[in-house]
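The data are quoted verbatim here:
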Amino acid sequence: MVQVGNKTYNAKQSDMEKKWYLIDAKGKNLGRISTEIAKILRGKDKVLFTRNIDCGDFVIVINANGIVVTGDKLEEKNYYRHSGYVGNLKTIPMKDMLKKHPNFVLRNSVKGMLPHNILGRHSLRKLKIYSTDTHPHEAQKPEKIEI
């Protein structure tokens, strides 16, 4: 039998090789760094990308407290949480959230760019964020990349 055309190759989980990347977030824009992190976590930068397989790599982000936000987002963007009781909606402006929990701001931004299913939740576990310039992942020998 003669083959007509090319066959599409679907990667398997055993074909994927996981790498570790180190990103310094000091002075970087929140949205721009979040899109690059999401792309690496998802594996879209690889040739063997398959949508239903976890193709992504691990990402370590240091200096998360040095993230820059442009425009009026510091005053206008709010984070909400609710306990479930009537009248108990808490609103925290982005300016306060960046001071108290810069890791949450970056993780929340990346989380919104990943798929909202099991694969996205699994990809988010491969993101390690630290506010300072030290991290406990030296044994993995992360490759430093510039964004």
In short: The chain has a mean pLDDT of 93. Helices lie at 30-42, 73-76, 94-100, 102-113, 118-124. The radius of gyration is 19 Å.
